[in-house]
Amino acid sequence: MFAKKFMKRLLRDTQGATAIEYGLIAGLIVIGMITALNSFANESTEMWGGVEAKFNDASNN
Fold first, then answer.
1. pLDDT in tens, 32-52
2. How far is CA 39 from CA 33, 35, 36, 46, 48, in A?
3. Which helix (H) or strand (E) holds 48?
């Protein structure tokens, strides 16, 4: 009898599903942030590499 009531309560409970959904949304946001920051880091590294090359050229002349 207890197991039957417990299972009915468990099937009606939606708090766990909501927590999982929020976790998935947070995970997708983090993946998007990592992708964007990785792209930004690559562009920034290329830019500073160009600045360094121009600085080295200017100091050698």
1. 999 999 999 999 999 999 999
2. 10, 6, 5, 11, 14
3. helix 15-60
At 22-33, the pLDDT tens digits run 889 999 999 999
Answering whether pTM is above 0.70, one says no
Cα dihedral 22→24→30→36 (10° resolution): -120
DSSP string, 19-45: HHHHHHHHHHHHHHHHHHHHHHHHHHH
How many Å is the Cα radius of gyration of the chain? Answer: 27
